[in-house]
Write a structure and sequence with these properties.
This protein folds into 2 domains: 95 residues, Arc Repressor Mutant, subunit A (Orthogonal Bundle); 239 residues, Rossmann fold (3-Layer(aba) Sandwich). It has a 7-stranded mixed sheet, sandwiched between helices. The chain has a two-stranded antiparallel sheet with strand order 1-2. By secondary structure, it is an alpha/beta fold. Helices cover 51% and strands 14% of the residues. It is globular and about 70 Å long. The protein binds S-adenosylmethionine. The site of S-adenosylmethionine (SAM) has 23 residues, from α9 and α11.
């Protein structure tokens, strides 16, 4: 029989359990702050705001805004002057970057954008745990695709063209001259649209199995007036298998796929002899222990895996189920080798979550 709980340790343990709930509920409040324009209003104000002025500037009801602001200030996410009556609230420069500046590489609202859809997956999870079958990205609806777009695009906008592509040997020159590129798992097209704009002589195809992502990507393509990129579902138009593609990019998607090895085999069959595969994927480690030791976000990542990444990777009965942290370098090397790739180089790109690899036939 288990020992009786130690009273002090019991209090501490309960506190740590409810701290998780506090984080989850506050994440919901962050979603509202972003969605209702509360952060944008605080960021653009010339001076600290009362909840009355904040509510007025967003067209909202003051009582609700006040309770929200108390949550945010209690969580130390927004600054508050409690000596003034009523209290006044503002954003520090760091808070402005993360909460209210879509152009900042530190902007972090993407995952919060899709927070309701991510948590709604809890409703279908018990069935997934029983049957083993997960749900693909379309199960998160159109806003799920927008959330993914907002998650990755701020960093990409600052680093993809100036940092990542030049790290690939000789690729920028070829992109400038004009080559064929496939961006697989393109989502809402954030990365491929950036590349298409930067390299007008090259032609790009974005592949994704999410109809919501493809719709969003096509909408953005039309808005941008881009004519050198198109978006397709690989189930109706597979990647060419005649070695006609010069560059394949995969951004944070191989670990989400039900059949990643088949996809990697298809990438190998699509690439020309001097072609390049830029693999960008989550920086997983070889063991659970290492992931926990080296990644302070490990609990978040294992949870997101259940709700999103692993669920997608198990959305077919024979899915591989790699999940968020399931493609460490060792496995990426192994899978690339199995597809016949002979050269594998880790790129020196500084990113808090992702690893970058140049892989060649
Ligand atoms: C985390 S999102 C990344 C999206 C995009 N690369 C980005 O950086 O914004 C993963 C994407 O992979 C797509 N995906 C999953 N399995 C796929 C497959 N077999 N072929 C193409 N896309 C796939 C999903 O639909 C989803 O849009």
């Amino acid at each position: 029989m288990a020992d009786a709980p130690d009273p002090d340790r019991l209090k501490l343990y309960s506190f740590s359990v409810f701290t998780q709930l506090s984080g989850a509920v506050t994440a919901g409040m962050i979603h509202l702050g972003d969605r209702l324009g509360l952060y944008a209003a605080l960021a653009s104000a010339d001076e600290p705001m009362t909840t009355e002025s904040l509510a007025t500037s967003c067209g909202l009801d003051e009582r609700w805004v006040r309770e929200w602001a108390y949550n945010q200030a209690a969580a130390a996410l927004i600054a508050v002057d409690t000596d003034s009556t009523p209290e006044r609230f503002w954003l520090t420069p760091e808070a402005i970057a993360v909460l209210a500046t879509p152009d900042s590489p530190a902007f972090g609202m993407g995952m919060f954008h899709r927070f309701p859809q991510t948590m709604a997956a809890l409703e279908v999870m018990p069935e997934s745990f029983r049957t083993g079958l997960g749900h693909d990205y379309d199960s998160h609806g159109p806003e799920g695709a927008v959330g993914i777009e907002r998650s990755f695009e701020p960093w990409n906008r600052h680093h993809l063209i100036p940092t990542v592509l030049p790290a690939l040997d000789g690729v920028v020159e070829r992109l400038e001259a004009g080559i064929a590129i496939a961006d697989i798992g393109c989502g809402a097209g954030g990365a491929v649209l950036l590349m298409a704009a930067a390299f007008p002589n090259s032609t790009f195809v974005g592949y994704d199995i999410s109809q919501h992502a493809l719709d969003r990507a096509e909408h953005r393509r039309r808005e941008a007036g881009a004519t050198n990129v198109r978006f397709v579902d690989p189930r109706s138009e597979p990647l060419p298998d005649d070695h006609s593609v010069d560059l394949v990019t995969t951004f944070d998607c191989i670990h989400d796929m039900t059949h990643p090895q088949e996809m990697i085999d298809a990438i190998a069959a699509s690439l020309s002899a001097d072609g390049v595969w830029l693999l960008v994927d989550i920086k997983g480690r070889d063991t659970f222990a290492e992931n926990v030791r080296k990644n302070p976000m490990a609990p978040l990542m294992y949870g997101i895996s259940v709700l999103s990444c692993m669920s997608s990777a198990l959305s077919a009965p024979d899915g591989a189920g790699l999940g968020t942290l399931g493609l460490p370098e060792s496995r990426a090397r192994e899978m690339a080798g199995a597809a016949g790739f002979t050269r594998f180089r880790t790129l020196d790109v500084d990113h808090s979550v992702n690893s970058f690899y140049e892989i060649r036939p």
